[in-house]
Amino acid sequence: MRMRQLGRTGIEVSAYCLGTMMFGTGNPDHDDCVRMIHRALDAGINFLDTADVYGYSETEEIVGKALKGRRDEVVLATKFNGPMGEGPNRSGSSRRWIMAAVEGSLRRLRTDHIDLYQIHHPDPHTDIEETLSALTDLVRAGKVRAIGSSNLPASEIVEAQWVSQQRGLHRLRTEQPTYSILNRGIEREILPVCRRYGMGVLVWSPLAMGLLTGRYRKGTAPNDARMRWVPQHLTDENKLDAVERLLPVADAAGVSLTHLAMAFATGHPDVTSAIIGPRTMAHLDDLIAGATVTLDDDVLDRIDAIVPPGTDLGPLDVSYTPPALTRPALRRRPVGERSAA
Question: Which intervals of the chain are annotated as region Disordered (predicted)?
């Protein structure tokens, strides 16, 4: 397994990061999930990513069980921000919630520290200084080694870096955006900004929520567990057209579409690690089998011709969308202030 530097933290991580979202939710067999984690570790994957909201704490408990006796082998990342119960203050990025959330994660993960603690989503209701101040205290207390973010727009990454510099706070060391052959939008601003600040980049959904496995084809009706997560994404005609054009590229390169997609994601010089999210041991074994695949310039040129650099063929149904796009009131003046036609 290839190893990379996690930004400028000095921490070395594998080019594949084992994502655990399917453990507990997609695969309810805890023992099987534990075996998958051990299989990944034995294959050289030393980077695990989870979140408190996955399975509403069940996934972190599975990870904690799996890492008993093997904690020192792993760079362990988790996330906070998602809703973890009823009530107005059991989510978000406030100091109040961060201090409670980290204790819950430490308990479930059966560890005294988290190697990478990440803001799961932007929080438009909380000042970034409030969030960074709380995370800085966790680093100084030894409960967290490094801090990062996920799904942040480029402008908010820059703002967070500026606030850290001006206020003497620990800065975000990593960003976790979505990235795949079908979703290349981060090549425009996110990746260049991360490069500028020396941030590690952990990309999620390098297989485009399953589309880049070749299991979902044009003219067929997907019918499996993932359909409840991303039904529109898996039936997007633009993406399905691209998949049909990518399949012969993979065939000509002598690799499966899955391995082509993973090699594409991990081959970008600004990507540290690609998060894999297997549900079964067979999925994991197939992904591990392609860990050494690399793509030459001819193959990359053919991919660029199908999906140009910086292009998103369509958003993932689970992607973060800023309030300015989801709330009409933020882009429309009140009726009384509108000019007469």
Answer: 317-341
In angstroms and rounded to an integer, the radius of gyration of the C-alpha atoms of the chain is 20
Give CA angle at 275 (269, 278), nearest 5°: 145
The helix/strand/coil state of 215 is coil
Q: How far apart are CA 114 and CA 75, in angstroms?
A: 8
* Residues facing residue 231 across a β-bridge: none
The per-residue pLDDT for range 239-278, each reduced to its tens digit, is: 999 999 999 999 999 999 999 999 999 999 999 999 999 9
Residue 273, beta-bridge partner list: 202
Identify the pLDDT of residue 131. Answer: 98
User: Where do the structural domains in the chain lie, given as residue ranges?
Assistant: 3-337
Residues 45 and 1: their CA atoms lie apart, in Å, by 7
Angle at CA of residue 257, ends 252 and 258, nearest 5°: 145
Determine the Cα–Cα distance for residues 215 and 231; give it in Å rounded to an integer: 14
pLDDT in tens, 185-221: 999 999 999 999 999 999 999 999 999 998 888 777 6
DSSP category for residue 54: G
Pairing of the two strands 144-150 and 200-203 = unpaired
Q: Classify each residue of 59-98 as buried b or exposed e, where b means 16 or more C-beta atoms within 10 Å of its C-beta.
A: bbbbbbbbbeeebeebbbbbbbbbebeeeeeebbbbeebb
Burial class (CB in 10 A: 0-12, 13-18, 19+), 30: middle
Active site residues: 54
**DSSP 3-state of 31:** helix
Buried/exposed code over 226-260 (b: 16+ C-beta within 10 A; e: otherwise): beebbeebbbbeebbebbeebbebbeebebbbbbb
* Structural contact between residues 141 and 106, judged by C-beta atoms closer than 8 angstroms: no
Top CATH class of 3-337 equals: alpha beta
User: Once rounded to an integer, what is the mean pLDDT over residues 84-110?
Assistant: 95
Comparing CA positions, the residue from 101, 278, 98, 69 lying closest to residue 170 is: 98
Residue written as token pair 């362990």: 76
For residue range 150-192, list pLDDT tens digits in order: 999 999 999 999 999 999 999 999 999 999 999 999 999 999 9
